[in-house]
Design brief:
- The chain is α/β, with parallel strands linked by helices.
- It has 16 helices and 16 strands.
- It has 2 domains: 257 residues, tm_1862 like domain (pyruvate-formate lyase- activating enzyme, Alpha-Beta Horseshoe); 80 residues, Orthogonal Bundle (Arc Repressor Mutant, subunit A), CATH 1.10.10.
- 42% of the residues lie in helices and 20% in strands.
- The strands form 4 sheets. The chain has a 9-stranded mixed β-sheet, sandwiched between helices.
Amino acid sequence: MFIKSAYIHIPFCKRRCFYCDFPVTVLGDNSGNHYSPWQKEYVDFLCQEIMATPKQNTLPLATVFFGGGTPSLLAIQGLEIILNTLNQHFGISKNAEISLEIDPATFNLRKLKQYQKLGINRVSLGLQAFQDNLLEICGRTHRLTDINQSIDWIHQANFDNWSLDLISGLPRQSLHDWQESLEKAIALQPKHLSCYDLVLEPVTVFGKKYAQGDNPLPLDETAAKMYCLASEILQKAGYNHYEISNYGKKGYECQHNQVYWHNESYHGFGMGAASYTNNKRFTRPRTRKEYFAWVGKYCQNLGIIDIPVTSKNDQLLETLMLGLRLKKGINLEKVKTNFGEGIADNILKSLDSFLEDKSVIFDENTHVLRLTDPQGFLYSNTVLTALFSTFDN
């Protein structure tokens, strides 16, 4: 089995945003660009994990993704050590897509140029909104002036492949706010945009403060309009709506994330990171102390993890759940080949009502099943619930 991708979790943040439930380490005023003992310790353990991981193939990595957290808070020295370790152990292709998540007010022009020297050729800027009041409500540490400065530096560095993130459905966010953010984003000419709808996770500040439908959250009807508006405006501006939450100019779709959506194998390294290798899906501990202890045991066991192989039925559900996120959908002939005769018929039977109302389309010539845009994408959870009720037994 060939594994061509690696995800690296960098947990450092200035503070925890009010919607975030990711495994992070809050550094506060200690979140400067210097290679602090906290950063060095984490990188040391992460690299031990990488080196202890058995090689699955001889092909070099085609994608590397640094997520967080706020990876741009990690000093250049730490990033360089991680990339060198990955290259030493797995190899990194000369044409690899190497992505780094960055936040405004955590980098400068000099740092962007250092990223490029390391081979990082794609950055994803976490803006979330263009309105200072919304940024404050979310607990973000940057403001519009920081955004403008960050964009200026990205353009000065001639970063061709860059993306930005926006969130819809925020407290006190109006449809006008959302349209303004979309239009301002387009004017900045990123090659890629990710537009996420706010999810209220129970352990977050928002999750404890609000319930779905509570004021000042937008009504469900308004949230749906926000989704449809993004699809309409961004596609008119030349962005391909290639995945439920993602839009890219031609040739600039995120290669790393497509590994997930095609349910292909990948390595994950770092606190809370998930891996999918040898049909085994597992997640590392979410706290520094527990992660460091886990790495120690992992190295002693020579990278062998005693977890069960994902069942064939779960593999099917994961394939459907992830594949239907893509605009091009899934090929039911391939599903039949991988999971057996009769599966395709059961899938179509469970989706009768969605096929009838055109939120799901099946092309009998190409055997492709896909969600329509925006209606099918908008109600994807309902579609998936129908599939799970059929096969999750």
